[in-house]
Amino acid sequence: MPRPIHAVIHQPALANNLDVIRARAPDSRVWAVVKANAYGHGIRRAFAGLRATDGFGLLDLNEAVLLRELGWQGPILLLEGFFQPQDVALLEEYRLTAAIHGEEQLRMLELARPKGPLAIQLKMNTGMNRLGFRPDQYRAAWERARALPCVGSIVHMTHFSDADGERGIAHQLEVFDAATVNLPGEASLSNSAATLWHPAAHRAWVRPGIALYGASPSGRHADIADLGLMPAMSLHSELIAVQELKAGDTVGYGSLFTATEPMRIGIVACGYADGYPRHARGWGDDAAPVVVDGVRTRLVGRVSMDMLCVDLTPCPKARVGSPVTLWGHELPIDEVAAASDTVGYELMCALAPRVPVSVATLTTADAPAH
C-alpha cells in the first residue's frame, strides 16, 4: 500500500490566475512562464489550465518541443535564448522566439545564417546585472540585430530586480525608456510583481510566473490575499502515528523541541525527501504552520527524511489516518516558505518525483475560450 502523501495540481486555479493577470494588465498580451517544468507543477499538467495565454515562456528546448507536441501553436519564448550554434536550426523548426542577451548569441546568429524570419527579444541590463546588453551598448546591438536577414521582429526586453520591494522599478524603467527612445518595436518588461503592482511597466507584453501558480512574488501572502489568486498546487498526507509526551520530552533529531507540559503529537508521512524543507522551523512562536483535520497547528521538531511531527493540542480528535495539509487552499505556501526562510518558488520546484501527483481538471465551465 503506498504512503498516504500526494500532491494535487489544480488546473481551474491556473485558469483563474491567468484571468486575474489579464484583469491587472488588460491592454497587454501574456507570456505565461512555465520554466522549471512549470514551477514544479509539470508542463503536461499545467498546460490545460494556461492554454488561454498568448504565449509561453521557458528555458529548456525540450520543454519547448513538449509544448508543440501537446498541440500549442502559439508563440514560445526561450527566456535565456540559445546556447550553441546548432540550436539556431531548432528555433526555425519549432518556431521559437529567442531572447538575445549577449554578443555571443548575436555572433551565432550571424554565423548560422538561418533562413528566418526569426522573432527575437533583445534584452537590456537595466540594473539586475544578470543578462543583457548594457544601456550604452543596447542601441548598437539593436542595429546589429536588425541588419541580420534572418531576424524578423525585435521586442525590447528587460527584467526588474526590485518590483516586489520598496525600491520599486522607477530607476530601471527610466534607464530602459532612455535607451530605447525612438526605437521601433514592442516591449516586454513585467515579471509577476511588476504585472501585479506596477502598471506603468505593462507595455505590449507581461511575463508572469509565480503569480500564475497562486503564490506571492514578494514571499508575503498578505501582499496577494485580496487579488483573487488561487493556489495551483496542494500537498497532502495523513497522520501515521500519535505520541503522548510528558513535560521534558524532546522531539526529533537534535532535540530542538522540548515539551513544557504533557501533549500529543502526530507523525506525518512527509519529509525532506518529499520536498518539504528540512530547515522549516519546528520550535518557537514562528514554527511552520500545518493543517490537521481541518485545524491549523504547527510543526514540532526537526523535519526528517520521511516524516515530520505536528502539535495535536489544537485538534484533540485527530488520530491515525487524520488528513494533513502541508500547503494548499487551506494553507498558503508562502506561509510555509516564510517559516522556512525561503520563498514559495523553491517549495514548488522542490516537490520530489516520489510524491504521487493527481490533477484537478477543468470542467466545461472552467475551460478557456481558446
Automatic annotation (TrEMBL):
Residues of the Alanine racemase C-terminal domain: 232-360
Residues binding substrate, per UniProt: 130, 305
TM segment ranges: none
Pathway participation: Amino-acid biosynthesis; D-alanine biosynthesis; D-alanine from L-alanine: step 1/1
InterPro entries in the record: Ala_racemase, Ala_racemase/Decarboxylase_C, Ala_racemase_C, Ala_racemase_N, Ala_racemase_pyridoxalP-BS, PLP-binding_barrel
EC number, as in UniProt: 5.1.1.1
Keywords: Isomerase, Pyridoxal phosphate
UniProt superkingdom: Bacteria
Annotated catalytic residues: 35 (proton acceptor), 253 (proton acceptor)
GO term, biological process aspect, one: D-alanine biosynthetic process
Cofactor(s) needed: pyridoxal 5'-phosphate
A Pfam family recorded for this sequence: Ala_racemase_C
MF-aspect GO terms: alanine racemase activity; pyridoxal phosphate binding
Reaction catalyzed: L-alanine = D-alanine
Location of N6-(pyridoxal phosphate)lysine modifications: 35
Family: Belongs to the alanine racemase family.
Protein's job: Catalyzes the interconversion of L-alanine and D-alanine. May also act on other amino acids.
Protein name, entry field: Alanine racemase
Organism classification: Bacteria, Pseudomonadati, Pseudomonadota, Betaproteobacteria, Burkholderiales
